[in-house]
Design a protein that fits this description.
Bound molecules: flavin mononucleotide
CATH architecture: 3-Layer(aba) Sandwich
Radius of gyration: 17 Å
CATH class: Alpha Beta
Number of helices: 4
Helix content: 25-40%
Largest sheet: 6 strands, mixed
Shape: globular
Distance between the termini: 8 Å
């Protein structure tokens, strides 16, 4: 078997794609690009993704702002239209407009998990393993908030982008551990 100079067990490069829907203040798009730079991934909107082409990727990130307590419908609809993934790795990310102060300590994690639950359940129903999830605050001028200057002004900020990069490095490590040369029988075939 041709291993291209690599030993069995060496991590193969993780081919990654980041899918993002962002429109309110393009907050989530900033996070998408920070993550994509670390993963060396293309960034596409759900509308640009052809469901069958997603089979090319080892790792796919799905992100959007939070609208009415869930990810954007176009992302959930895309997830629902994907071919069965057989345990392939995915991750979820978002920006939310609620003030972080409303969710002290561990409650923030619960809030984020609840926001992501419709997308997570859809991805899992298509056979994806959701390896990790990320969220941070995003500028929010929805509805009456615009009359008061909005919430989370300046977010995502430099710290949020740094946290998103750290998240991407961690997800890449997790996905890489499962993506060993010869493990999936694709090298040299
Ligand atoms: C129509 C609409 C509904 C929203 N609903 C919520 C919500 O339920 N919970 C929340 O925390 N933020 C909510 N937000 C705020 C957005 O999640 C936040 O501003 C986010 O960063 C927007 O991301 P984007 O700029 O990538 O679109 C809402 C914003 C809009 C425009």
């Amino acid at each position: 078997m041709e291993l291209d100079g690599k030993e069995p067990g060496d991590p193969r490069p993780v081919k990654s794609l980041v899918v993002v829907f962002s429109y309110h203040h393009m907050n989530t798009e900033k996070i998408a690009h920070a993550i994509a730079n670390v993963l060396d991934a293309a960034v596409k909107t759900p509308q640009q993704v052809i469901p069958d082409e997603i089979r090319e990727y080892d790792l796919v990130g799905f992100g959007s702002g939070i609208y009415s307590a869930r990810n954007h419908e176009s992302l959930i609809e895309l997830a629902d239209a994907l071919p069965l993934a057989n345990g392939r790795n995915a991750f979820i990310f978002s920006t939310f407009g609620a003030p972080v102060a409303l969710f002290p300590g561990e409650r923030l994690k619960g809030f984020i998990r609840d926001n992501h639950s419709a997308l997570r359940e859809t991805l899992e129903s298509r056979g994806y393993t959701v390896v990790d999830e990320f969220a941070c605050a995003g500028f929010n001028t929805n509805s009456f908030l615009r009359f008061f200057g909005g919430l989370n002004k300046g977010r995502p900020d430099a710290d949020d982008l740094r946290h998103a990069e750290e998240f991407a490095r961690s997800v890449k490590r997790l996905a890489g551990q499962e993506n060993k040369v010869a493990d999936r029988g694709t090298v040299g075939t």
